[in-house]
UniProtKB/TrEMBL annotation:
Pfam families in the cross-refs: PhoD (PF09423), PhoD_N (PF16655)
Key word Glycosyltransferase present: no
Signal peptide: 1-36
Alphabetical keyword list: Signal
Name of the featured protein: Alkaline phosphatase D family protein
Domain Phospholipase D N-terminal: 45-131
């Protein structure tokens, strides 16, 4: 798996025409590169692999059928299946929404395998899967992906990941689907324009709803190509269930009209486990875990450990809403009290004790084994992103007069909902950009940093999603001690917040620059593009390549390297170089 870095700048249209290519793509078997979503009537949702260890990997597909159905799966060391190494039967039925998951085991560490499924005479598309390596490893390439919203556009970044042969595994940090719906729901105007209206049309609440939405997302050609080419490492964020959930509810759940939250959450988790290539609890080494306890640990030989975390359902305290406290924030002193006493109140967790214990054990083990890299798959940005004073910087108008003129709490709320007003208000008091990210849980963030220090691992690399922006961040604890670095990815199709809020390209770029220039932990950020991050680890150095796509409005697109940011290990720390 030792390779040099290769640029991956190539257009999909040119590739499909056979007139362009890059060395980085030449090792990908052409049978794995779908030009369009499969028209196979039995396996119309493609195939996928995921959740590997050194000796096994989950293989997934879905059969379009009625009633109970059975078939076989096969695994080979070559795409022509000259020799079948493993095979076995499978059975599925409506109770599992006709999804199929098998655990292919007894495999070699660091192996590359090809797999397929059969029902009668019908054969599924071909898939490629990897197991985790053991022993000496000199290079690892991970594609970081997040926030794929069907309504906002084609999953072109998935297609680009599929064609990127410098990627060994894909880490998806959540918002794999979105729950929104309705004729005027978020993204509906774009969806109607490009013909990607959510199914079902309404917001998803029931098990049948979540199943239908997962099925729709897996008809996207880019999604099918990525899953066929690369093995998935996954965690979830909020939209797999509903916007901003915590342990006992969610911002986007109204019990009066949408029923019991626990029932809805259970339906979303059941559909997720049916439709994703992830291990069932009984397939885990640690027994007695539930599906809700969805975090994983992956060891890549002597090079790296990657630990994903669960931040939404098992422990999270309810997020703080700014509007509930805005009247009490009137000057710098009251803003600081809010940050310290409200946001920073003790015992406002994000991670469960079991997740923390597993994370501490994995980090300790990695340090003891001498692995250079300890990576956290993180659903949300963990850096301190406290908004600078954008009014003083001349980027947005001062909203003070508008706010002061409000004649009622309702009118004040309407004014505050204006994105320019909200960012100006937060900037005036240097408040965190979002209170449902780690910035709204500073006690929990410090607890995580303390856990890592105790494990001897104050040198973490966070790979984060959720924000719809690219990030390169330098991290520190409350005492200013370095804790690691962070790379964050933009959405696969979800739009950047500044652009989506209507600021326009010029102001959005200016806000990006202001974030990098005036927020101490932010080195670089970009909210103008959709795409993914390829993070490559070598023994003492690495490279983060931020890959953008020029459009998500059509399936024809071009990729562009927006930025390459090297990083390294220096004197027991991870640093951006």
């Amino acid at each position: 798996m030792t390779r040099s870095f290769h640029p991956a700048e190539v257009s999909r249209r040119a590739l499909l025409a056979g007139i362009a290519g890059s060395a980085a793509f030449l090792t990908v078997p052409s049978a794995l590169l779908a030009q369009a979503a499969t028209t196979n009537p039995v396996f119309r949702h493609g195939v996928a692999s995921g959740d590997p260890d050194a000796a096994s990997v989950v293989l997934w597909t879905r059969v379009t059928a009625e009633g109970a159905v059975s078939g076989t799966w096969e695994l080979s060391g070559t795409p022509d299946f000259a020799q079948v190494l493993k095979s076995g039967p499978f059975a599925t039925d409506p109770g599992r929404n006709h999804t199929v998951k098998v655990l292919a085991n007894g495999l070699a560490p660091g192996g590359v395998y090809y797999y397929r499924f059969r029902v009668g005479e019908t054969v599924s598309p071909l898939g490629r899967a990897r197991t985790l390596p053991e022993g000496r490893l000199d290079r690892l390439g991970i594609a970081l992906a997040s926030c794929s919203n069907y309504a906002f556009g084609y999953f072109n970044a998935y297609d680009a990941i599929a064609r990127d042969a410098d990627v060994d595994f894909v880490l998806h940090t959540g918002d794999y689907i979105y729950e929104y719906g309705g004729e005027d729901g978020w993204g509906a105007d774009v969806a109607h324009r490009i013909g990607r209206v959510h199914a079902p049309l309404h917001e998803i609440v029931s098990l049948a709803d979540y199943r239908t939405r997962h099925a729709q997302y897996k008809t996207d050609a880019g999604s099918q190509a990525m899953h066929a080419n690369h093995t998935l490492l996954a965690c979830w964020d909020d939209h797999e269930s509903a916007n901003n959930p915590w342990k006992s509810g969610a911002q986007n759940h109204q019990p009066g009209t949408e029923g019991d939250w626990a029932t809805r959450r259970a339906a979303s988790i059941r559909a997720y486990f049916e439709w994703m290539p992830v291990r069932e609890p009984e397939w885990l080494a640690v027994k007695g875990r539930s599906r809700m306890q969805f975090w994983r640990g992956y060891s890549f030989g002597d090079l790296a450990t990657l630990q994903t975390i669960e931040t939404r359902h098992t422990a999270r305290a309810k997020q703080i809403e700014y509007m509930d406290h805005a009247e009490s924030i009137v000057d710098a002193a009251s803003a600081q009290r809010f940050k310290t006493d409200v946001l920073g109140a003790p015992d406002r967790p994000i991670l469960s004790p079991e997740c923390e214990a597993d994370l501490a054990a994995a980090l300790t083990r990695s340090v003891e084994q001498g692995q250079p890299w300890r990576v956290i798959g993180c659903p949300m940005v963990i850096a301190r992103v406290d908004v600078p004073d954008v009014v003083e910087l001349g980027l947005v108008a001062d909203p003070s007069a508008r706010l002061a003129a409000a004649k009622s709490k309702e009118e004040l709320a309407r004014i505050a909902a204006d994105p320019a007003v909200a960012v100006a208000w937060k900037g005036h008091f240097n408040l965190p950009d979002y209170t449902d990210a780690w910035g709204g849980y500073p006690w929990a963030r410090e607890r995580l940093y303390e856990l890592s220090r105790k494990a001897g691992a104050g040198d973490l690399v966070f790979l984060s999603g959720d924000s719809h922006s690219f990030w390169a961040n330098r991290l520190a604890d409350d005492a200013g001690r370095p804790t690691g670095i962070e790379f964050g990815t933009a959405g696969i199709s979800s739009p950047g917040d500044f652009v989506d809020s209507g600021f326009g390209p010029e102001t959005s770029r200016a806000l990006d620059r202001a974030w990098a220039e005036h927020i101490p932990e932010v080195t670089w950020t970009d909210n103008m593009h959709q795409g993914y991050v390829r993070v490559e680890f070598e023994r003492e150095r690495g490279m983060a390549t931020f890959v953008g796509v020029d459009t998500v409005l059509t399936p024809s697109y071009r990729t562009m390297v927006l930025r390459r940011i090297p990083f390294a290990r220096q004197e027991g720390r991870t640093v951006l170089t």
